[in-house]
Amino acid sequence: MQANRILVVDDEREIAELIRDYLEEEHYEVAICADGGEAWRRFGAFRPHLAVLDVMLPGIDGLELCRRIRAESAIPVIMLSARKEEADKILGLGLGADDYVVKPFSPKEVVARVKAQLRRFGPLSSLSAERDVLTFGELEIEPQAYAVRVGETAVPLTAKEFEVLRLLALHPNQVLSRQQIYDRVWGVNEYGDLNTVTIHIQRIRQKIERDCAGPRCIRTIWGVGYKFGGPAYE
């Protein structure tokens, strides 16, 4: 099975190398960078499945790097910071980060959080391993790169939006209930409003559908749930 690729960005090389060593023990493929500019250049070539970013970086800081990554991809992002202020954490999460770890930390904690975030995205399935791109008309989804395009236009989705879309796309013409989607994306141990699913579906449609009033990619099956695909994709 292909190893998940992790990008670790920290200007304290000892910390970056320590995280790398622990992740490699878990059979991840790891690239480390010391500044934001280098990391941004490496991002496109390395195509990581998850990024671990220090907030305080020379050049492009971690928050700006997170913003740029989120504009291009829905991969999970874990922020590292020596600052404990709640406002910093809120800012990072508001820019699209999925988790936030305060220094000093145990490398084992970072590994555990990496595993947790990748579980949310699911393992590299046999379908996504065999097919790098899922194509449905003009819509293209790259499950491993967490990238979406409509025609030639890249579509920026949040992490949860991508998870919902990928889940539906990997089960074309199968009706999934809101509860099933919530359990798979947010987790069966999470307690929340199922309207969250509805809101995410609406946001996804606004980004990928030509006509949200008559969606062709994600169709509502009233009283049951949602189905990916329609006449154009059958």
Tell me what you see in this structure.
This protein is an alpha/beta fold and 234 residues long. The protein folds into two domains: 5-121, Rossmann fold; 153-228, Arc Repressor Mutant, subunit A (Orthogonal Bundle). It has nine helices and twelve strands. It has helices at residues 13-25, 36-46, 62-72, 86-94, 107-121, 126-130, 159-169, 178-185, 195-208; strands at residues 5-9, 29-33, 50-54, 77-81, 99-102, 134-136, 139-142, 147-150, 153-154, 175-176, 218-221, 225-228. The strands form three sheets. It has a five-stranded parallel β-sheet, sandwiched between helices. The protein has a four-stranded antiparallel β-sheet with strand order 6-7-8-9, covered by helices on one side. Strand 8 and strand 9 (153-154) form a beta hairpin. Helix 1 (13-25) packs across helix 5 (107-121), helix 2 runs parallel beside helix 3 (62-72) and helix 7 packs across helix 9 (195-208). The two termini are 30 Å apart.
